[in-house]
Design goal:
15 strands, 11-stranded mixed sheet, elongated, about 675 residues, 4 domains
């Protein structure tokens, strides 16, 4: 019989008929002579009763198991070797597909009459009070308190792990399977939302592990500095036999070196990457355009002279443009106008011209060369640009581009300058130098630590410049395929970008990376706390929506912001919830001639009502390490994230171990997220 309402919030009454049938079968077989039936019929009847007992027992166990899962949170810890890796699927965790049944069960669980099924027993409550009062004591009471806290099969009051939230949300489905998504969806990009310390970085570790083992080029951006994330990248790269680069602004002595503006397809990209870090709203837009042109002239001159631009070079030229102008004009005139030096030496500047040059802050040599160029009507795009800069009063022009200097100061101060403006020809510096094209060609793994807690603005500037560089590489790859610039073909690889604390990195440079890089084999996963952080960082709600529209896969852990939760819940359909209303009535008869004095009626009325599949409050109450995933075209799954076994040890270099220990002390004074986060599960897992 099919019942219109599934109700698992009730006593497991199936055990009664199961016991009765099993007892009857035993009685039939042990005392068959009492029933005066043929032996064959006795065997058939006993077998039927055993079968009935088995069916009912299975049904009762299902009810009991369901109710037990509502209040228990076993761990989900697995060795890294057990992370499944597939060429066609991406493993996310254990869970189930959420549908109307689970919304119905959640509504029933929150019905006050079912409270006893979702609350801990009195013995559990007593054990926690006892531990609190006798913690750290000696004697029998202290020993007892230690025993009740042990996680063992014989302990009926094992404490729940400190993950918070509402355990019933995942306990609504006792039958779990491994949840994965099709890799065809990866170029559509992924966003992971969750408040601080609920498991975003641990999910990143699971995804990064699979990407590295699958053979993808992996680039991990970590603004805050997660030691576990860095060591995981190294361990997986080493196990896969892949090259590993660690770039970290907080540890320049051990960091690899990278020039954010040294590789480009067009020279204008240099000025775009630098000017893009400056404010461009309101009146600042005009000054930003001045900076763009100024840097573009410098970059064009330097590349023509055969230099590879870097931040230190741009800064030196910006504060002393006359020296660059002299170097370029001499180079150009040597090529185009032989004998120009004698003609320039013959130029006599009058007193007024000399005073004007000194007043404007320009050198006499530069002004004499400009006079020669004008008198001979010579033209060159770069020389004309330099001449237009030099024709302005120095103090006046510096006011126009004054916003450039603080930015370049930050990027060229101290040891940071050594890793952002590397000296390619320095044989005494053992630190490796990388660029994105070589990383892709060599199939390397890169960890980028931006130390945003120490210097937020420098971290943002470097991160944005790296994204702009990657966007340029995506354009080259899209047009020329991987292997651009090489004489030999290389295996085509996917490039997986993982950006933790995404809101601290995002800028205008990131929009085209999401819009168009999927066709070049780029697949991006971003992690942030709330979508409001992204809007605040980008400063434009329309642009933030444009970014969100390019993130097709959504994984949401616990969030504290209703607007963020509604990003998921607003995409879900409403479902029909079935409700039962009990009604009773009694009717008295006032006619003495009738036999019946009154009549009664009892009935259960079944009705349906429309309700959202999930509410924002459900996402606010998620325990740590649990998430809802909207994948593969809006399919909703409830998942539990695995933790790697903390006892599993892998060798890492002493220098990297020292950095990891320093990161734990510097960035995470309360212990690592791996140590604090014990996520719920079943069996050997959460």
């Amino acid at each position: 019989m099919s019942y219109p309402i599934e109700n698992l919030f009730r006593p497991a009454v199936e055990y009664v008929p199961a016991f009765a049938s099993l007892s009857g079968a035993i009685l039939l077989m042990s005392a068959h002579e009492w029933f005066f039936l043929p032996k064959e019929l006795i065997v058939i009847a006993a077998a039927g009763m055993v079968l009935h007992a088995g069916v009912r027992l299975r049904q009762g166990i299902r009810v009991s198991r369901f109710q037990r899962n509502l209040t228990r949170l076993p761990k989900y810890v697995i060795p890294t070797s057990e992370i499944p890796v597939s060429k066609s699927r991406l493993f996310l965790g254990l869970g189930f597909k959420w549908d109307q049944r689970h919304t119905q069960r959640l509504a029933l669980a929150r019905d006050p009459k079912n409270r006893r099924y979702i609350t801990q027993s009195g013995l559990y409550t007593w054990a926690r009070r006892f531990e609190f009062r006798h913690e750290g004591r000696g004697g029998a009471s202290g020993w007892m308190a230690r025993q009740t806290r042990k996680e063992a099969w014989w302990n009926p009051v094992t404490p729940l792990p400190p993950v918070g939230g509402d355990p019933i949300i995942h306990g609504l489905e006792p039958d779990e399977t491994e949840i994965s998504m099709d890799l065809v969806e990866r170029p559509g990009h992924m966003v992971v939302l969750g408040t601080t310390r609920v498991g975003k970085s641990r999910l990143a570790e699971v995804l990064i592990t699979q990407d590295i083992r699958r053979g993808d080029v992996v680039i991990v951006f970590d603004p805050k500095g997660d030691a576990g994330l860095m060591t995981r990248c190294y361990i997986e790269a080493a196990m896969a036999g892949r090259e590993f680069f660690m770039f970290h602004l907080g540890y320049p002595d051990q960091s690899a070196r990278y020039n954010p503006i040294g590789n480009f397809a067009r020279t204008t990209e240099v000025s775009t990457r630098i000017a893009g870090q400056l404010p461009g709203e309101g009146q600042s837009a005009a000054f930003k355009e001045f900076v763009w042109r100024f840097v573009n002239v410098i970059a064009r001159a330097r590349t023509t002279l055969g230099y590879r631009p870097d931040y230190r070079m741009i800064y030196e030229d910006a504060v002393n443009i006359d020296a660059l102008a002299l170097e370029y004009l001499r180079f150009w005139l040597d090529r185009e106008q032989p004998g120009w030096k004698e003609a320039v030496d013959a130029i006599e500047m009058d007193k007024t011209q000399i005073q004007q040059a000194m007043k404007s802050g320009r050198t006499i040599d530069a002004m004499k060369i400009l006079l020669f160029v004008r008198e001979n009507n010579l033209h060159d795009p770069i020389a004309d640009g330099l001449a237009s800069i030099l024709s302005n009063d120095r103090s006046y022009f510096e006011k126009l581009v004054s916003s450039l200097y603080p930015l370049l100061e930050k990027l060229t101060t101290g040891k940071t300058a050594q890793i952002l403006s590397p000296q390619y020809d320095d044989p005494t510096d053992p630190r490796p130098i990388f660029d994105w094209m070589s990383v892709i060609e060599r199939g390397a793994v890169v960890y980028v630590g931006l130390d945003s807690l120490s210097d937020y603005e420098v971290a943002g500037a470097v991160g944005n410049a790296m994204f702009a560089d990657l966007t340029s590489i995506a354009g080259q790859t899209y047009k020329f395929e991987q292997g651009y610039g090489l004489s030999t073909a290389i295996p085509k690889r996917k490039l997986s970008i993982h950006a933790d604390e995404f809101n601290e990195l995002i800028g205008d440079e990131f929009i085209p990376l999401l819009n168009k890089a999927g066709g070049a084999g780029f697949q991006v996963a971003v992690y942030t706390q709330t979508w409001a952080d992204v809007e605040a960082r980008i400063g434009n709600k329309a642009k933030a929506s444009q970014i969100g529209g390019n993130l097709n896969t959504l994984i949401m852990l616990r969030v504290k912001n209703k607007e963020t939760a509604e990003i998921l819940t607003d995409q879900l359909p409403d479902v029909q919830l079935v409700t039962s209303i009990q009604a009773s009535a009694a009717t008295d008869s006032s006619d003495d001639r009738e036999v019946l004095s009154f009549t009664t009626r009892n009935e259960d009325r079944i009705s349906t009502q429309e309700a959202p599949m999930l509410s924002p409050a459900d996402l606010v109450q998620l325990p740590k390490g649990q998430a809802f995933a909207l994948i593969e075209g809006g399919q909703l799954y409830k998942i539990r994230l695995p933790l790697f076994d903390p006892d599993e040890a892998h060798p890492i270099p002493a220098s990297l171990e020292d950095i990891a220990a320093s990161m734990r002390q510097k960035y995470d004074t309360h212990g690592t997220e791996t140590e604090n986060l014990v996520v719920e599960g079943k069996g050997s897992g959460f």
